[in-house]
Amino acid sequence: MGRMPYLLSRIRRMDHGAMVRAVRELHIKTGKPAVWLLLDMFRCAKEYGAGYVDYQIAEMYRLSPAQRKTQITRGVSNRIVARMNDKRFWHCFDDKAEFNALFHKQIKRGWIDLRTATAEEFALWREGRGAVIGKPIEGSSGRGIKKYGEGCLPDMACVRAGGIELLEDCILQHRAVADLCATSVNTLRIATLLGDRKQGVVYAYIRIGTGSIVDNVDQGGMAAPIDLCTGAVSAVGADKKGNRFENHPVTGVKIPGFAVPFWEDAVTMCLSAMHVVPEVRFVAWDVAITADGPVFVEGNSFPSHAIPQFAAHYPDGIGILPRFEEFMSL
Predict the structure, then answer these.
(1) Per-domain residue ranges for the chain?
(2) Contact 237/248 with Cβ under 8 angstroms?
(3) Tell me: the pLDDT tens digits for 43-69?
(4) Distance (Å, rounded) from C-alpha 213 to C-alpha 255?
C-alpha cells in the first residue's frame, strides 16, 4: 500500500475523539495553538507515517524534520514487520499455547490450553496448584489477563466464560526485580533482528508496573532502556503520558543504574530462540527473571513500536531508527 492510501485508511479507522483529546492535552502542555498541532500531526502522518499517539510519545512537535526521520512510527514499524516477518508464521507467536509448546524449554512452568483440555484434565491440572495466571490465547498489551489466587480457581466453564483460554503457573520473579514493583512481573523486552546486514539484539528495555498485575505500558506501566553491553538501566523510566521517573513512584527504588540479574543469560536465550522460527526475523521477546535465571513470558511477531520511541529516552531528538538501519536496509 502506498503512503497516501495508507494515510487515508488510517484516517478512516482512527479514534477521532482520542485524537482530539490528544491535541487538547498537547495544547495545554506546550502552549502551541491547537490548529497548529492538528495540522502538524497530519504533516507527520503524511511524511513519516506517524499516528497521533506516535506524535505524542515521541514529542514530534519539538523535533526538526531531520530528527523526525529517525523515529520508529507506526508506518515505519509496519514496513519493518512486513519485510521481516512472514505472516504465515505469525501463529507461532500469536497463539500463546503454541508459543509455550514451541519454547517449552524456555517457558519452564506448567500451563494448560483450555481449548483442548477435558474437564478431567483440567481438574487434575488444578489439583494442589498455587496461584495461576489466566490469558486469552491471542491478544496484546496485557488486556484480558487475570490472576487467580491459590485455591480460588473456579471450574473450567467459568474460567472460559471469562475469556480465559490459557492458564499458567505464576512466575516467581527475582527478588531484586520484585523490589522495583512487587505487584507485577517486571519483564525485559528484548528485540532480536535477523537482518540482511547483521543479526542480534536491536534494543532492550525493562518494563515496570506501577501497581497493576501487569507491567505493560498500555496498562499504565513504564519502560526504561537497558545498556546492551552492561545490562544496567541507562535512563529514567517513562510512560505513555510522557511522565519521567528517576525513582519508582510507589516503591521509591531508583531506576537508572538498576542492574538486571542474569542479563547475559537472558540475551543468550533470545539469540538462540531467534533461529527457531527463522521466517519471523524480527521478534520482541518478553523475558522474566527468576531466582534461577531468565524465562520466556511470550514472543511478539508484531512488536509494539511505542516503547522504543519514548521521548524521555532520546533527549537529543534522535530516535532509534538508525539502530535498525545497522541491521537492515529500509
Answers:
(1) 3-69, 86-96+173-327, 110-169
(2) yes
(3) 999 999 999 999 999 999 999 999 999
(4) 19
